[in-house]
Structure formats: structure tokens, C-alpha cells
Amino acid sequence: MEKQPPREEMKRALGLGSALSIVVGTIIGSGIFFKQGSVLDSAGNSTMAILAWIVGGILTLTAGLTIAEIGAQMPYTGGLYVYIEELYGRVWGFLAGWMQVIVYGPAIIASVAGFMSILMTNFFGLSNEWRVPLAVVTILAIGFMNMFENKVGAAFAVVTTIGKLVPIAAIIIFGLFWGHNNALGQTVGEIHSASGNFGVAVLATLFGYDGWILIANLGGEIKHPQKVLPQAIIIGITAVLVIYTLITVAVLRFLPASQIHTLGENTTAYLATAAFGQIGGKLLSAGIIISMMGTINGKMLTFPRIVYAMAKRRDLPFSRYLAYLTPKAKAPVVATLFIIVLATILMLFFNPDRLSDLCVFTVYCFYTLAFFGIFILRKRNGNHRPFSTPLYPWIPIIAIAGGIFVLISEVINDPAGVILFIGVVIVGLPVLYLVKKLDQRRVEKALNIKNNNLKK
Question: How many angstroms separate the CA atoms of 308 and 6, rounded?
């Protein structure tokens, strides 16, 4: 008998505005501000760098359109974890959830916080030794905020999303209208050297676009999810695609490619000061820091929901505690603490750039499986669906091709990192076996006690 989704206990309090703010706020974080140099180096010239951001956005949009149809049919807390389990069974579903709560979620939070701390140390004039402490304090503060009712985190998402539009608008307007460089046609010779290729450049942009699917983890807390979830995903990704393209053109208009290559991760901080002076640069940097805090907030709001969903199915050790919700706010406080601890550990052992690339690879393994799922659901459910992906089957096919491209590119460019992260995911199998074994013993013990009582 097929396992039914768990009974929802969280509050359906999030409307389209909150959902859209979470999508945009979760996507626009560190990637667009810190990946300009690496995308340019890999692409080889400025024209191909701009194209890489556009292609990355189109691939993300096809993925979003595909998942929108799937998510509208499974509007439950847990998102990708629930989708994979319903499509491929218990084991694959568990691995999808395990990947997100042990690898992807904590790593992506640690990565964004690590990038943010670079700006924070520059902003406060501190040495590099302060980067990790500042990142850890930020994670703790935002995690604590998300231990209250989901409206608190959603409200913070709305505020930071509006706040991040200020530095974005400033960069776009200043670069486009006051920049003196031609954004197109700056060649490899001006960059001095190029690493990777166009495929690697697109892969780097996908970190900047990643996070759109996290709204699906809140499926059990969204009002009218069959309608709102697809709208939030599609409108959000489209808006980000336009914003990212404009930012890239603006940066290339204001700074020559050779300087972006030299500055690397410090490109945005330098641009802010050069364009607006010391005070204006500080204000712009503050806006970008707030933007990144909003991204961390979106991830801290969504990933504990996966932990909660898995714990409700008794798929994790200590599920009884991880599934705990506060009586009034219905907030998964223990699950949130769990994510905070893992993110802090990863922060101490990995640099943010490496984490960002490996995060994309790990999650795309399961994204690609989910993309195939649209064909399974069409066969299983026929025409009974709240939302239909346009241009079917071409949109899902492009999404699948993009997913395969990401996986192959990362295997070629970082085989050691791929093996490490796959190994961590596979470790989940014996964990599942042990958890189920202990759960079975607990049930048998309870039945024996009940039978003994009946005999008495």
C-alpha cells in the first residue's frame, strides 16, 4: 500500500507576496555579487560571460516550470524530498531528504554566510580572522529568529527582498548610464588567462540561481498552494533572470574585464566604493549584506521543514525530537538547531567557493530525477493536474538536458569533491536501515506489551 503524505500540522499562513519574496530573496544572495570573476574567467570573454548568466537563467526557468507542475500536485511540507519519494519510492526519497539536510542545506547556508563575511570584514575594517566568527554569529541570529512563527521569517524575507533591490538598482543604473566600457567583446587577452570553459561558466551561474525550489519545502504552509506555488516559482525565476543579466552588463560597463579578473570575489566591494565613494560604498555594501542575510533567512526558513518532514516519517535518528513543533507558533525549533549546528561545522572546514560548486552538483542529482518525474505523473494521473508546464515535453527535456550537463561538468572538473559528497549521501543508506530496524523493534516491543496486558 502506497504511503500517504503526513497529516499537516503547520499553519497555512503564506500568500503569494510572501512566497514570491522567499523565492526572490532566497535566490538573490551571494552568487551574483561574488561569481562575476569566476564566470568571466571560465567563459573567456565578456560576451560569453553575459551569455552564461542568460543560459543559466533559462535552464533554471525550465527547471522551475517542470517542478511547478509536480509541486502543484504534491503541496506538502518537504518539497523535493516528498516528490522523489512519491515518484521513486521510500529509499530514493530518503536519499533526497538526507542529501538536503546533511549536505546541501547546511553547505549552502555556510557558503552564503562565508561570502557575506567577506563584505562584513571589509565594511567594519576587520582582519580576515573575523570572517568565520561573523558568519557563525549571523547564522545563529537568523536561525534563532526562525524559531518563531513562520510569519516572522516570511516578514523578514519581504523586508530584505525590498532592501536588496536598493543596491541592485544602484549597481544597474550606475553601471549602465555612467559606465564607459563596452560590455561586449572584451577578450581573453584582456583577462590575461581563462580557466575552464563555457560549460564551467554556466555551472558557476547556477549557484547564483539556486534556491528557487526551496519554496516547495513550505508547500504545507502556503495558502492555495496549487495556484500560488507555480506562480511564485515562475514569476520569481523570471524576475531574477532579468536582474542578473542587467547586473552583469552593468558591472562590465563600469569595470574592465581585466580588473574584474584581478579583483575576483572583491569585485562588488570595489565597485561600490569606486562608484559611490567611501560613504556611498559603505551604504551599498550594507545593502548587499542585508541581501545576503535575506538569502540565509530563506534557507533557514525552508531547510528545517525538510528535517521536520523526514522526522514525521521517522526517517532520521531522534525523529521524536526533530519533529517537535512549538505549541503556539508551530515552529520546528529542534530541526532548526540541527541545521544551524551542521552549517557551523561546514563553515569551519570548507571555503565558501568550493562549497557553492559542490552544493549545485549534489542537488542537481535529485533535481534531474525529479524532472523525469513529470512524465511519470502525466502517465499516472492523466489530465488531472492544477498546473500544466507550457511547451510540454520540450521544457522538461531542456531541464533534464541541463541537469545532465551540470552533473557531467562537475564530475570532469572536480572528481574528488564529487566522490566526497556522493559518499556522504550514500552513508544515508545504513542510517536508514538502522533507523527502520530500531523503529521496528519499538513497534514489536509495544505490541508485546499490549498482548501481555491482554493476557492478564
Answer: 11
The DSSP call for residue 6 is: P
Q: Would 133 be classed as within a structural domain?
A: yes
**Is 333 among the domain residues?**
yes
Give pLDDT tens digits for 365-414: 898 999 999 999 999 888 888 888 999 999 999 999 988 988 888 788 77
Cβ-contact 22, 157 below 8 angstroms: yes
* CB-based contacts of 339, cutoff 8 Å, min separation 6: 101, 105, 106, 109, 143, 300, 303, 304, 307
Q: Is residue 273 part of a domain?
A: yes
CATH of the domain at 99: 1.20.1740.10
Q: Structure pTM?
A: 0.79
Which amino acid makes up residue 283? L
- Residues 66, 18: Cα–Cα separation, whole Å: 22
pLDDT digits (tens, 9 = 90+) for 180-197: 888 787 765 555 444 557
Strand partners, 77: 218
For 314, counting Cβ atoms within 10 Å of its Cβ (0-12 exposed, 13-18 middle, 19+ buried), the class is middle
Domain count, the chain: 1
317: preceding bond cis by omega (within 30 degrees): no
Domain that holds residue 59: 16-455
Domain-embedded: residue 1: no
Q: How far is Cα 34 from Cα 37, in angstroms, rounded to an integer?
A: 7
